UniProtKB/TrEMBL annotation:
Family that this chain belongs to: Belongs to the mitochondrial carrier (TC 2.A.29) family.
Name assigned to this protein: Peroxisomal carrier protein
Membrane disposition: Multi-pass membrane protein
InterPro entries, per the entry: MCP_dom_sf, MCP_transmembrane, Mito/Peroxisomal_Carrier
GO cellular component: membrane
Keyword flag Ribonucleoprotein: no
Solcar repeat coordinates: 10-104, 115-200, 208-295
Length: 295
């Protein structure tokens, strides 16, 4: 009986390890999509007439072709080591804290059981904030590497040193933290949505078939991505080494400044640039995560 109970309610560290491994595997498989997404978000319309044609991308397919032509297939995997480390730490931290917070809630019998939508969102958001706090430097380094020209690109430590040596100092490694706090709503919406859809579509069953897990992740993630895409675009612009020509080399100071600049110079809809790759990767990622983690 004890063994059956532990299988139904594994300790937080089991969720943490399985979540971390699943995130690393899924991210590695889909990393080329992330590379293209980052490059599309970092460029502006002004770049079209001011940079070489091979460095400006007209959509996903065009970006893949040009990256492979100029950098070879390894160019699609630029910054992968930093991303793997970031995802390993973030996956472990998020799943540990999410499991711990959710189990703590469920142990409090005075609270409504099972957790409602508000409680699910609160647990996922809290876990997201706690995990991002310690993993954001690796995310900043990864974005900087992805938006740096191949001939200037450095390793993880070299890129981190470059950021620290800039005007931002060591705080540059936490650039975009406030945007990250907003983006933490993404997993909150996703995981909260999964738990609610699990009840609505599959009568609350904890063990799901692979296609059921994929469906839950796909629907929940799509809703979250579309709602938060402008924040994601602004965060990429804030961390990117590549700046719009109109900035004359002056870095952005906040994600709000990035959003205002994009709306002013490119139009409101450009806050959703890179949505195709972002949505494709996110949906595939969440589906793979659900399948890998539950296995």
């Amino acid at each position: 009986m004890a063994n059956q109970s532990s299988l139904r309610n594994p300790p937080p560290i089991v969720y943490a390890i399985s979540g971390s491994v699943a995130l690393v595997v899924a991210n590695s498989l889909l990393f080329p999509i992330d590379t293209v997404r980052t490059k599309l978000q970092a460029q502006s319309k002004q770049d079209a007439s001011q940079i070489p044609d091979d460095a400006y991308y007209n959509g996903f397919i065009d970006a893949v072709i040009k990256i492979v032509r100029t950098e070879g297939f390894p160019g699609l995997y630029a910054a992968l080591p930093g991303s793997i480390l970031s995802n390993a730490f973030q996956g472990y931290a998020f799943n540990y804290w999410h499991s711990l917070l959710r189990q703590t809630y469920m142990s409090l019998k005075s609270l409504p059981q099972p957790p409602g939508t508000t409680a699910e969102l609160a647990c996922a958001y809290g876990a997201g904030v706690l995990s991002v706090l310690f993993t954001i430097p690796l995310s900043v380094v990864t974005t900087r590497q992805q938006t740096t020209p191949p001939n200037e690109r450095k390793g993880i430590l070299g890129t981190a040193k470059e950021i620290v040596d800039s005007d931002d100092g060591i705080t540059g490694l936490w650039k975009g933290f406030r945007a990250s706090l907003l983006l933490c709503i993404n997993p909150a919406i996703t995981y909260g949505g999964i738990e609610r859809l699990r009840v609505l579509l599959f009568q609350g069953r904890q063990v799901l078939k692979p296609w059921e897990s994929f469906l839950l992740g796909m629907i929940s993630k799509a809703i979250a991505i579309i709602a938060l895409q402008p924040v994601s675009v602004a965060q990429t612009g804030l961390r990117s080494k590549h700046l719009p020509p109109s900035r004359n080399g002056k870095p952005f100071k906040s994600f709000g400044e990035v959003m205002a600049h994009i709306v002013e110079t490119e139009g409101f809809l450009r806050l959703f640039k890179g949505l195709g790759p972002q949505l494709s990767k996110a949906i595939l990622m969440q589906g793979l995560l659900n399948i890998l983690k539950e296995r």
